[in-house]
Amino acid sequence: MQLREFHANHDININNEQEMTDETKVKLLGIEWNTSKDKFIWNWKIPQGGLQTKRQILQFYAAIYDPLGLLSPIILPWKILIQDLWKKGMSWDEKLELEEMRRCSELEKAFNQFNVIEVTRWIPQEYSEIHVFVDASERAVGLAVYARRSSSMTCKPQLIYGKTRLIPKRESRKLSVSIPRLELLAVTLGIRALEFIRQEIEVRKTYLWSDSACALHWLRKPPVGSRYISNRIDEVRRCKGIEFHHVRSTDNPADKASRGLLPEKLKDDLLWWNGPSWLWEQKENWPEDKIMQESVISVCMNMGLLAEEEIQSPEVITLIDVTRFSSLLKLTKTILYVLRFIAKISKDKIKNLKDFSRDKFTYKEYEKTTQLLVRMAQSSITQKEIEHWGLRKDQNGIWRCVGRLRRMMPQIEDFPYFIKKGKLAELIVKYYHENSFHASVHYTWTKMRQRYWIPHGRAYIKKILRKICRGCAMWVVTPFEQPDFPPYPTARITATRPFEITGVDLFGPIIIKENQIKIKRWVALFTCLTTRAVHLEVVETMSKEQCIQAFRRFISRRKQPKHIISDNAKNLIAASKEIIELNRIEGETLEWEFITPGAPWQGGIYERMVGVVKRSLKRAIGTKYLNNAELITLIVELEAIINERPLVDIEEIGLVLRPEDFLHPGSALGERLIGGKDYNRNNATANIGNSQTKELKHQYMTTCKRLDHLWKIWRGEYLEELRKRAQRKHRGPRSRIRREPEIDELVLLKGDCPRNTWKMGRVHKLLRGKDGVCRSAVIRTANGNDLVRAVGHLYPLEISSRENGKEHSPGECR
User: Are 509 and 521 in contact (CB under 8 A)?
Assistant: First the structure.
């Protein structure tokens, strides 16, 4: 887009651009700007015939373009009128009724009498404070944001942003929101506006002012049980560096935005344009913050809007520490022994302990012990819970959950005990779940509620079983999500000598016949990470010695590599130790890198080539049996064919880039495709003498140029083809744990056997890549061995503190 005109309100030097409009009034984003006065101007005109339909009203006030909300107070009455029309169900072009027509006429008259508002555009850059005022009414919430310069010379604040939002009208009063909640909503909107402004303007201090003592007190001590309030308080608390203050309603400019003004009053309203008068002064002269006055707080408490500072909790009976036990039977027996001991040593016979004896445990002893446990758990029940759950006491003073079924059973003892959520409830759930052979949540809850009633029992049982039932977790847990594929290693995208960085793998067996005897052969595959060339060697066995022999043949023809990547096969691990030691003795450096055990995708560089070779072998051999010589010949020919496969096809110049071109830059096919015309294959075998020295040098330089040209194409075309790869994520089950493992977390290690035989261990160390992402971990098993496994092969058996209550949780019993 080309720049057509320049507009400025003071003299500036513009090089090479002398033409500049002389107009004093221009349009800036739909707003008229008077460049001589440096003011924004809004004007409007009521159409002839007035506004008689909902469509005309909306067209009129929507035409007043005010992105900063500076005119919010005069727009609000029109918004309220439109909302009332929607509530009545009037169509777009239906004539207004008498009452709405009267309200519309009053607004038209006010806007006709005063149809222009001018606002100063310039705001100094040295403003260091932002003040947000918020307010709410029955119809709308509003806010006003002021920038204030904090200096010894002047502190004049300036309105920079305003906003109003209508309150949705509810059909039922029961669904309406109270004024204190609307005030809290206004605080939340003020926080959002402040976050937006702080992204655009650098400020040192930020203030938020509200005239609602309840809303500000909620920020300090949220009430219990209100999701609406807690969600908004959480959002407010996430915004840091804000000072909250109380302001009187008469000094709150946001009151104009929440209730509305007419244009004539808005023009000269200093409270709206510049904030309260005391904001012009130094901070020491601001009014005292009286939000915590006892009179204000007591009024809010009497209205039920605030909670008491300290709630007296009932006395809790703690005969024994229940948290020390992991089994309900052990806990019951321990208390039973204690009660037997008390009954034995007491001089006076205790009435409630007369059934305790020295003989075998009886049903009455178990029943009285259970009642004592239940009474201990019920010692913290509040009156609110008693009324809410419909509890009734039996003759033993134990609360039972009767609810609305009191006429169903004549005896109150037939109703279940009421158990609050806690350690005892957890032990009860575990007892019934294990006794029902790890049945589902529904079955466990059905059996348990015949004797015990826990609030929200089904959800509570599900939560507890996820945490404590390892037997169920073993069968239903899902693995950690394997992170996205990492960036290509440097060896894949850096030009190096062929086979300088090599991937190694063995595959087979291939059945051959020698003297009518079937024997096995394997193939060692070496592939270059840079040029994707392959080298194949036939080996007789999978032993360490055969691997070393194959490696010796490889380096004799392809030179010594500097870095080797392979899987964790025992023969390769044993061979690598001897090969590295031999290289160390000879003064050469060789690095041998092993991928994570059980993670073949990390060796995809050679696994892909193994697949190519095996597919070609199957199609070439079919059902025939080759002898050893034929197999070696076939493997060598197959190596040549694979190395002539195209890496990238450049149709514009008719060039196919192949691994063979890097191994033998002067190959016949490569010459023809590269376009070399001065290369003569016969010259390579000519008698070398003084007369041929110049020709040999020329051929050498030509070969070097061709090789440089190949690497240039490799960088420009082949690497671009690698970029086009669409797959970024590993394939796996949908329900995966989308987080990293944690140190000391208990996990299952995926194996090729049934789940109940998988190994179990704890995360000892996280292994991170160069990009800082954890893709593998060291797991310490029960016998002290450290195993390295990919993250996607770990199944967590514990609920993480970060995961609790989010997304999927492991070990859920269904």
Answer: yes
